[in-house]
Design a protein that fits this description.
By secondary structure, the chain is mainly β. The protein has one helix at 31-37; strands at 2-6, 13-19, 27-29, 54-57, 60-63, 66-72, 81-84.
């Protein structure tokens, strides 16, 4: 497995030429997964499936190279606990402007 870094400008990942000693495979996260896990209780986002909103490594969720949430527990019958990395002062109303240019679409938190 090759190592990678997050591209803060595009929200994608960049593969590095050096291999890594362990495997941590990133996967794209789309709106339906966010809905099933319960992220819609905390964040506002379009329900589009053309582009991923986040990247996940195991139970860690990343947005433009910044850790934004972690899941704990859960099973097919019980939803996991969502631990947000950033506390919001107002429910569902904070914008991640610090992570992207104002001319680009941002994830609303």
């Amino acid at each position: 497995m090759y190592s990678y870094t997050y591209d803060k400008k595009t929200g994608g990942i960049l593969l590095n030429s050096s291999p890594t000693g362990f495997s941590k495979e990133p996967r794209p996260v789309y709106a339906p997964e966010l809905d099933v896990l319960g992220f819609d209780k905390y964040w506002k986002y379009d329900k589009q499936t053309d582009y991923p909103y986040l990247w996940a490594e195991s139970n860690y969720y990343w947005y433009r190279g910044n850790l934004v949430a972690m899941l704990k527990g859960g099973n097919p019958y019980t939803a996991p606990e969502i631990r947000l990395a950033y506390a919001c002062n107002e429910y569902r109303e904070v914008v991640f402007q610090i992570f992207c240019n104002s001319s680009e679409p941002c994830l609303l938190v």
